[in-house]
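Tokens as discussed.
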């Protein structure tokens, strides 16, 4: 077993590299597509350091669980509480609902170290549309580490009493098991694999295993020259992963092994690498490494707040404010409390009560204090809700049928097929059907395109569901069929022409009349506000600009491609409806706000009001004509 290495400059350099990669990625993911992997590198470093500390204390016979956890609390929680106070109080005036009203629950989850679980249950996906507006999203990784700090020392103590020789083999096996869970779970439930400890523990254990074997032992085994090359190669692996691996890939899975292996090589052999030590040991880099925890805490809330305050945040000011906040936190919160007395510990213990005292009254407010009256609708559940009540996913997978007011004889008046763009129309059409005593079946499923033929992240059932959907379409009869999709994601796929033709032919055979809808206009948001339409509207207003929204020009071309495919089939009972013009302004922008209110829930979905507009302007007359025959 190794003893604890008191200080290695290259470790601070590695911390700096990790946190800067994450920072750059969050400012602009296009600048460093794999920058989010800095968290994975940090996990390996944390596992290495915490194992070194525990093993040294255990071998010296002075390790206690209580003492260990108190040191972890003094190390992590003072800076976290200071950060939470700022985010919760300032966020109530900067953010808008639902992000503002969610702050209380998220802060409580961060305090009690289950933020990763809470975010998994409430957001479902780190990469989802709403996640980039969650000011405490970054606390997931802190909670995961803290959960590791609870489990790991218990296992070490138990094994140390049973068999010291079993410690290293046990954690090597456990690391491989956790890695296997990550590979297995990523395509089935990417969000669980990303957020939760079972699929992430191996990353911390990689660092733990390096600490258990000991860098000195590893360098001696490999030889100083090869060790130096291995460390430099590890550094190259880390940098390459930041540049090459994309967050659109199936992640974590096996891809996370690349930066983790790189970090392990640097930790194992860095003492023998003069080049790596020279690079990572530069004084300013080391300082960033020392303040890396505070830098990580402050960077994300400041980025999120800046995007609610301005449609074009000044990156220089964001960077300066982040580093200034991190430095103040390190020198006046982290350091004093880490080396402080029992009084400091009492303050840490009382802090959650003060936090709750401030946060709860603010959370109980129904509207955001900092949002102008004319933008209140952008935080209305009716406007921004994208969790559809009439979701056919479970019904199709369980029974092979959709949901709605369909008859038992397999015949319906209105049939709806497609992805979330079709489902966005369902509630308005469902209400129309009820008012006119019509039957309806919904086979639209969010996140599952008609072209999906296999599992996809967070939609492991996509291929199976499409097969069952086709079977249902083969057996059902309908008077009117509606097919709507986000064609922008479909048109470029190799199987698009064949799949679209097969769907339309099947609908044509089983429906008296079929309408293929164009895609709605997509709002062209700046990268800083990507996927957050309400946040962009608030930022525009705060900067004194008009609420105007430009559209993505290529959507018209995509729609024309789909129109061409539909018309080429020449089926007499199939038509293409271009809904695009009905959601455009006179100036050519996207009609996000109309006389009757907000029409979009996000940057490329209409809300219920938008769906009602399309129903009234385009679909109702067609329904009446077809259903009266």
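Sequence:
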């Amino acid at each position: 077993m190794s003893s604890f290495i008191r200080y290695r400059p290259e470790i601070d350099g590695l911390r700096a590299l990790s946190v800067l990669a994450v920072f750059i990625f969050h400012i602009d993911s296009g600048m460093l597509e794999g920058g989010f992997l800095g968290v994975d590198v940090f996990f390996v470093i944390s596992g290495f350091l915490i194992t070194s500390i525990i093993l040294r204390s255990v071998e010296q016979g002075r390790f206690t669980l209580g003492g260990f956890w108190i040191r972890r609390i003094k190390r992590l929680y003072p800076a976290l509480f200071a950060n939470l106070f700022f985010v919760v109080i300032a966020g109530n005036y900067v953010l808008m609902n639902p992000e503002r009203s969610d702050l209380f629950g998220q802060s409580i989850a961060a305090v009690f170290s289950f933020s990763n679980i809470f975010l998994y249950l409430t957001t479902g996906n780190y990469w989802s549309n709403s996640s980039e507006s969650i000011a405490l999203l970054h606390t997931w990784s802190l909670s995961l580490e803290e959960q590791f700090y609870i489990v790991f020392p218990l296992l070490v103590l138990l094994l140390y009493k049973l068999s010291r020789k079993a410690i290293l083999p046990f954690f090597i096996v456990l690391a491989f098991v956790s890695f296997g869970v990550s590979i297995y779970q990523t395509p089935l439930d990417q969000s669980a694999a990303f957020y939760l400890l079972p699929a992430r523990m191996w990353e911390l254990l990689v660092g733990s295993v390096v600490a258990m074997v000991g860098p000195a032992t590893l360098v001696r085994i490999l030889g100083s020259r090869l060790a130096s090359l291995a460390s430099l190669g590890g550094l190259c692996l880390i940098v390459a992963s930041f540049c090459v691996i994309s967050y659109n890939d199936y992640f974590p899975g096996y891809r996370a092994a690349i930066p983790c292996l790189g970090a392990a090589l640097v930790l194992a052999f860095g003492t023998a690498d003069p080049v790596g030590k020279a690079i990572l040991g530069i004084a300013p880099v080391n300082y960033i490494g020392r303040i890396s925890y505070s830098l990580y805490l402050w960077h994300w809330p400041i980025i999120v707040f800046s995007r609610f305050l301005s449609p074009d945040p000044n990156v220089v000011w964001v960077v300066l404010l982040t580093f200034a906040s991190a430095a103040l936190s390190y020198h006046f919160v982290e350091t004093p409390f880490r080396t402080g007395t029992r009084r400091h510990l009492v303050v840490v213990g009382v802090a959650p009560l003060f936090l709750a005292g401030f946060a709860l009254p603010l959370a109980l407010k129904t509207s955001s204090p900092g949002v102008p009256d004319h933008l209140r609708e952008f935080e209305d559940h009716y406007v921004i809700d994208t969790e559809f009540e009439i979701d056919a996913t479970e019904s199709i997978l369980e029974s092979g049928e959709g949901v709605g007011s369909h008859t038992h004889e397999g015949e319906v008046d209105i049939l709806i097929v497609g992805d979330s763009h079709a489902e966005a129309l369902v509630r308005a059409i469902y209400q129309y059907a009820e008012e006119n005593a019509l039957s309806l079946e919904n086979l639209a499923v969010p996140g599952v395109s008609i072209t999906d033929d296999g599992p996809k992240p967070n939609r492991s059932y996509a291929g199976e569901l499409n097969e069952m959907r086709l079977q249902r379409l083969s057996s059902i009869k309908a008077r009117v069929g509606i097919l709507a999709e986000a064609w922008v994601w479909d048109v470029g796929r190799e199987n698009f022409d064949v799949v679209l033709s097969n769907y339309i032919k099947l609908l044509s055979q089983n429906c008296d009349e079929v309408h293929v809808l164009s895609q709605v206009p997509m709002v062209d948001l700046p990268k800083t506000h990507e996927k957050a339409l309400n946040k962009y509207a608030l930022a525009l207003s705060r900067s004194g600009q008009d609420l105007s929204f430009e559209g993505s020009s290529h959507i018209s071309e995509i729609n024309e491609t789909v129109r061409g495919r539909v018309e080429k089939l020449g089926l007499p009972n199939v038509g293409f409806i271009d809904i695009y013009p009905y959601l455009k302004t006179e100036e050519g922008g996207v009609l996000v706000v109309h006389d009757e209110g907000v029409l979009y829930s996000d940057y490329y979905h209409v809300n219920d009001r938008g769906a009602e507009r399309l129903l009234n302007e385009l679909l109702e007359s067609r329904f009446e004509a077809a259903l009266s025959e």
